[in-house]
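Q: Give me the 3D complex with farnesyl diphosphate.
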Amino acid sequence: MAIPQHISIIMDGNGRWARQQGKIRLFGHKAGKETVREVTTECAKIGVRYLSLFAFSEENWNRPADEVKGLMELMLKSMIGERDTMMKNNIRFRVIGNYAHLSETLLEAIRQLEADTAGNTRMTLILMLSYSGKWDLLQAARRFAADTLAAGRELPLDEDTFASYLATAGIPDPDLLIRTSGEQRISNYMLWQCAYTEFWYTPVLWPDFRTKDLQQAIDEFNKRQRRYGKVE
Ligand code: FPP
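A: Here is the predicted complex, encoded as structure tokens.
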């Protein structure tokens, strides 16, 4: 059984899960956080090297203020509360996204946890926070243009060079992208990075997603033939 080197997950369905229980949306996000814990532990155990989680998109800032506030508090609390577990399990933590929209308190917690876990080598857990694919492409293009201007000449640009300007520089592209809750779209996620990623969708809502569902996704991944546009 091949274990994907990089698994990425669009964690969807927290709101619907909460509604089914007659609770507010934040209740679903809190339950979703427990799933994050279970899935992270399992991925580290089976040998996944990178696990990236779409926790909050640039578009999500348009949600009701109390939901946004609650989600940010949940992230902050998790970054402080899960530190010891990450250290014990040798997990490196990273946050990728548009830092310009994050509060100073959250940024400080991110910097602290990234620094504390920088030497951990078993698996890298990446929280895609205030992230969107178009934002990433634009910031890469802007920075490349600035470097060109500074150099005073046209700099050569190939795929590897462009990828080095993306917020995900240094991280291999996802091999497997999982999306929960039955939605089947990319939702402005890693647009460049998912060029050859295998997609797997499940109707299961994120708070209900368990190790067995992850296993099913990996089983399915193993049945796929990745040809990268070539003929076998
Ligand atoms: C999508 O469900 C989920 C989110 C926008 C937030 C994801 C956050 C978590 C899983 C919890 C926090 C995570 C960490 C790492 C602390 P939705 O609200 O779009 O659900 P819906 O489509 O049913 O409305």
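A quick observation: The chain is about 45% helix and 15% strand.
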